[in-house]
Amino acid sequence: MMYDVLIIGAGFAGLTLAYQLRKKSSDLRIAIVHDSSFPLDDISDKVGESFNEIGAVYFDQMLGLKEFMKERYPRKLGMRFFKINESSYQEMGYNNFTPNHAFHFERGKLENDLFDLVKDKVDFYLNHKYLDFETVDGEKHVHVLDRNDKSSRTLKAHWLVDAAGLKKLLARKFDLTHRLPLNHSSVWFRVGGGVNVDDFLPLTSDNPFTTENRSWSSIHLEGVGYWVWILRLSENVTSVGIIFDENMYEFQDLATWEKTKLWLRDNVRVLMDYLDEEQFPIMDFRILRRFATQSDYWVSDERWALVGDAYGIWDPYYSNGFDLIGMQNTILTELILAERAGQEIHQRIQGANRFISDVMRGFAATFTDFYSRKDRWYYICSKYNVDMAVYFPILATIVHNSLESMFVDEDPVFRDRVLFYLEEGGGIYFQLIQLLASDEFKNNGVDGYDYMPLNADTYHAFVPEMDIPYHEKERVFPILEKNCNLLWCVFHYLKSGRNYMDFIKNGAYFAITEQTDPERYRDNPDQLEADLFHSA
Predict the structure, then answer these.
(1) What is the pTM of this model?
(2) How far is it, in rounded angstroms, from Cα 491 to Cα 527?
(3) For the residues of 37-89, what is the DSSP string, one character each?
(4) What are the beta bridge partners of residue 177?
(5) Which residues pair with 243 in a beta bridge?
(6) For 404-444, how does the pLDDT look when each residue is reduced to its tens digit (9 = 90+)?
(7) What is the DSSP string of 91-116?
(8) Which of 237, 280, 335, 519 has fewest C-beta within 10 Å?
(9) pLDDT for 320-348, tens place per residue?
(10) Residues in domain FAD-binding (predicted)?
(11) Peptide bond into 469 cis (omega under 30)
């Protein structure tokens, strides 16, 4: 049989791509080659157990699976950050859920569920190992090995997609992948119990957080050169992990569970004391070392593509890996369907590579020289909110309202204009990141606030419309123009040396419009406060 699409890998990326393709075109012939079988253990050996907001948009808007997820997995209460001091702590996070439905999940359980959704719509070659492929008369001849009887076979396909993760099968074949200048590594383990942050970082009398769902946030315990994640995957399972900079910590000091326990006792004693007291069983222990890689491009005129970790990964701090998969799968679906309809897609492939490259440049700015600067709470708070001031207003706006429309037409006019705003927002963001890294910011004397509640409704200020229809797609441009103005206002306010947390607390985001002139505030923060501050 000749397949329209052959996908290597039945993990999150490959299964969601197959589901999305069949959802858009039910007569597509799809095969998935996977080197193991189903069902998986609920506790998988893969890192990645939480969506961020763009991943939530993907599951809701593109896949239509929000209700499916709500029935099976705990909803995530945004991100929550702590800096633990000797006798106190500082905290930033939400009291209320943001509009998008993000989730925590046991990775094996989720992939089992996704497999069940597509198993009757896709031909699976389970326990088959991908060996190689060549192109013959314009078609892919894909050679695989059946692990059961050691026999080999050749499958034919029009498109070939590597969704097999860090194996990077196609990127290595074409010598596209390279290591990134980021020496971050990870160790993680799952415990058989519900880790409750209220038990070891209890609310104090002056703490403004009122939610009972604190522990269902994506918890970040912040330290210089590292952070610790805590993710409640269910009532009875919690994932705990450490991402650390090997320029500051020796990998061998965390290379085993026993060493990691000692490291946690030295660096995050309050957590380790709590785990010892609760005596939760340790379900596993995993390592992923120096994982930051990227490929030169992700989709080829020769009709093959690299999706998710097969293409690249910077850092899991914001769970951006699932964002990347959602964006790539959505673009790739439009490309495959356009080409199948007989349309020319060369320019669209160039735009696809440009879009994802721009996104990855943003991730580069986000994570380069970040971990070493986290000795100051105000920096941690400012950095997160600056990152979100481009992630929500620019990237989420595009994913909600433009991403599919960008690749429907051969005409590049709409696509190029969206890319202009992505790059314009990115350019302002790069200046913001440079400012946060400067001595000017480091020595500005601003302390911020020990407790920083974030307003979930701010998402509506950033993304006032969602799922703009294709025939009205130009409505996205005033939103992107307004949000670039927003980024400039943030820059001018931070540059003035005033407390960015006041900018947020006083509702400045809500007051910025397409007509706002950021130049008015370049050297006049008093005017910015007069014009933009109001009760949010």
Answers:
(1) 0.97
(2) 15
(3) -SSPPSS-S----B--HHHHHIIIIIT--HHHHHHHSPBP--EEEEEE-SS-E
(4) 295
(5) 186, 227
(6) 999 999 999 999 999 999 999 999 999 999 999 999 999 99
(7) EEEESS--SS--BB--HHHHHHHHHH
(8) 519
(9) 999 999 999 999 999 999 999 999 999 99
(10) 3-177
(11) no
